[in-house]
Design brief:
Strand content: 15-25%
Order of helices and strands: EHEHEHEHEHHEHEHEHH
Helix content: 40-55%
Largest sheet: 8 strands, parallel, barrel
Structural class: alpha/beta
Shape: globular
Number of helices: 10
Length: 229
Amino acid sequence: MSDDRLIAALDVPNALQGMKLAEEIGDAVSFYKIGLGMLTGGGLALANELKQEHGKRIFLDMKLFDIGATIEAAVRGLAQFDLDFLTVQGDPQVVRAAKEGAAGSGLKILAVTVLTSLDRGDLDANLIKAGDVQDIVLQRAANAFEAGADGVIASPHEAALIRALPNAAGRLIVTPGVRPTGSAKGDQKRVATPAQAITDGADHIVVGRPIWTATDPRAAAQAILAELP
């Protein structure tokens, strides 16, 4: 079994391309992320096929945000697919509703703290309260854990600080914004290498563009795994 600390993001337009990419990667990766960009392109069907027929673990990255009753209903519907991780926005009322919807299933609810593509200027534009981005991430993570989140999504820059929170014991930290040594940042602003993210307390790293844009995606995934401590 390959190292499931690496989650490969299938950030391609549709399920056919996603399956092709997964086949190219083969047994080098056992955990895949399917996001909102593929939802209308057969993303749920691909998630189900990879899970049920290929034995892969699945992270459904939907970042759900709505009123409690709607979140609960949506998560209950998604939980029937026997997936592994689901993201929701890290607001406590959203997390609580998602946990209700996931009750009785093995689906882990991960709370989004602050997107790794955002910096303080973006937060100002979004009318998010003043303060250091790192402090806001920590506060949102602590609040999400208090509301029952199984884990959080945070940049590698905050992983060590989140891991040190009193209520972080036994919770997952999943870090996007991971770029192998020598890779371009792309649209991410708060990034780190795979080894640094794991060393700082991440349980899983999410890597997309450096894998799916590679000439040999399997080799790219293997190179990332070779960097992990």
